[in-house]
Design a protein that fits this description.
This protein is 44% helix and 14% strand. It is of the alpha/beta class.
């Protein structure tokens, strides 16, 4: 849900009632943010068999076939259950505006069926979905849309929490960049970390994401990458925090300067770190920019390889393949830590990010009826990935 804080936070601050419609696994995170939760759809992404099948495609065929399999097949196959739940819920309590995650295809359909204003909230997958839309996603949704009496599936106009050109090779004309916000509970470091850093050595923060460590089929590969990174850290004379999720118990560090943990408040730690070794998820990269921390990107899957390549082109860090050796990783870390131009570039990017306008919920709702999405007709509004937000105008 951290990828959607830029939607839920401003909506709450502006006095709207926000309801998150999502599978049950999002209940706790919704409540942490003060958002009302209502269950919709299923927790199919947690199915071990689904994760194993996706992992095998990635391992055997690479990231492009993985994206086609996951987002061009699995996501469309699961859209019906989400759409059915949302149509029933929104018929009983009609929202004024839907902001749905860009990959939540069931929410897009439900809003279309009920003629609700809807926007897609970019969670990082926007560029991937655009690449696959005409050839894979729209054809896969054709029968479902026909079942509900709808025309060809379209992707609603997009909200994105960064300058559009940062992540889109050809910026879609209807994309609207808005200011990024982070939930307050991610802003403070635990005392055990806050007191333990020395100013005499650079601080490196390492995290390859939560999804990669949760998927059993990727654990062996990602575990090996973590071990190479930790070996490199021992060679460069730094302090480090390695956030490894479910893999943390398996990663032992003999060096007291390298602390292995399951999770940390990432935005807070990145305000202290001198370098971020990352898988390149959209939220993680934007956390790095807002912390003025250069990145060493090791993209794993989905949008991540493209994200880190784009950051490297902008001078915000470097990239390495997952197969990089201990020596290659150490050399890349040293090159970034020893060159002030990377920090200067990230600081400039942070200034650019802060100039974006804040999300204005009423402005979205009042946009009008017909609005073009990515070359595709769509009614304006907004909506969220695996989670749906229902926003009510407090003046009504």
């Amino acid at each position: 849900m951290s990828a959607l804080d830029y939607v839920t936070g401003p909506a709450l601050e502006q006095g709207h009632d926000v309801v998150l419609y999502a599978p049950g696994m999002f209940r706790r995170e919704a409540r942490r943010r003060g958002v009302e939760f209502r269950r919709a759809g299923t927790d199919w992404t947690c199915d071990v068999a689904v994760q194993q099948a996706a992992s095998e495609v990635w391992s055997k065929s690479g990231n492009v076939p993985f994206n086609r399999y996951v987002f061009g097949r699995l996501w469309p196959d699961q859209a019906e259950a989400k759409a059915r739940d949302l149509i029933a819920a929104w018929t009983r309590a009609r929202p004024d505006l839907v902001i749905a995650e860009c990959s939540d295809l069931g929410a897009h359909l439900a809003a279309k069926v009920l003629d609700l204003p809807v926007f897609a909230a970019d969670n990082g997958l926007g560029p991937v979905l655009l690449d696959l839309w005409d050839g894979d996603i729209a054809p896969a949704l054709a029968c479902l849309h026909k079942q509900y009496g709808q025309d060809t599936a379209v992707l609603p106009a997009m909200l994105t929490p960064a300058p559009v050109q940062w992540f889109y090779g050809t910026p879609p004309p209807s994309a609207r960049a808005v200011r990024r916000t982070v939930a307050e509970f991610g802003s403070a470091l635990p005392q055990m970390l806050d007191d333990g850093f020395s100013s005499a050595h650079p601080l490196v923060y390492v995290s390859l994401g939560t999804l990669t460590t949760a998927m059993a089929g990727l654990r062996t590969v990602i575990g090996s990458v973590y071990r190479e990174i930790m070996a490199a850290l021992c060679d460069i004379g730094c302090e480090a925090v390695v956030s490894a999720g479910d893999l943390a118990p398996d990663l032992r560090s003999a060096d007291p300067r390298i602390r292995v943990v399951e999770h940390v408040p990432q935005p807070a730690l990145l305000r202290r770190a001198d370098l971020f070794v990352t898988h390149g998820g959209r939220a993680s990269l934007l956390d790095a920019v807002q912390g003025a921390t250069p990145v060493l990107g090791m993209g794993v899957l989905a949008d991540q390889p493209g994200n880190v390549a784009g950051f490297a082109r902008r001078g915000l860090g470097r990239t390495l393949e997952l197969t990089a050796t201990r020596g290659e990783i150490a050399d890349a870390m040293t090159a970034i830590l020893g060159n002030p131009r990377y920090e200067a570039a990230v600081t400039a990017a942070d200034a650019e990010l802060s100039q974006l306008p804040p999300l204005d919920v009423m402005q979205l709702r009042d946009c009008g009826d017909a609005q073009d999405g990515f070359g595709l007709a769509s009614r304006p509004g907004s909506r969220i990935h695996v989670n749906e937000a229902e926003l009510h105008d407090p003046r009504q």
